[in-house]
Design brief:
It contains no helices and seven strands. It is mainly β and 72 residues long. Strands 1, 2, 3, 4, 5, 6 and 7 form a seven-stranded antiparallel sheet that branches. Strand 3 (19-22) and strand 4 form a beta hairpin. The radius of gyration is 13 Å and the shape is elongated. The protein starts with a strand and ends with a strand.
Length: 72
């Protein structure tokens, strides 16, 4: 089940709140949230993107493609 927050929707992810590694860059951290965010309209269709928010060991968050995350 997802929840909505100001035009975005939280997407369930099996690695939520666990240590993850982003396979494209090698960055690691704790998966904090995955959101479906509106990209607006293109060719008359509403487009969305899923974005993962990961908190790195330095306390700063970065975004990643949820499909590129693996257990660290």
């Amino acid at each position: 089940m997802s929840s909505t927050h100001g035009g975005t929707a939280t997407i369930p992810h099996t690695l939520m709140h666990q240590q993850v590694r982003e396979s494209l860059t090698g960055r690691t951290g704790t998966l904090m949230d995955v959101l479906s965010q509106s990209l607006g309209f293109t060719d008359g269709e509403h487009r969305y993107a899923e974005v993962a928010y990961v908190r790195g060991p330095d306390g700063l968050e970065f975004t990643a493609n949820p499909d590129s995350l693996e257990r660290a």
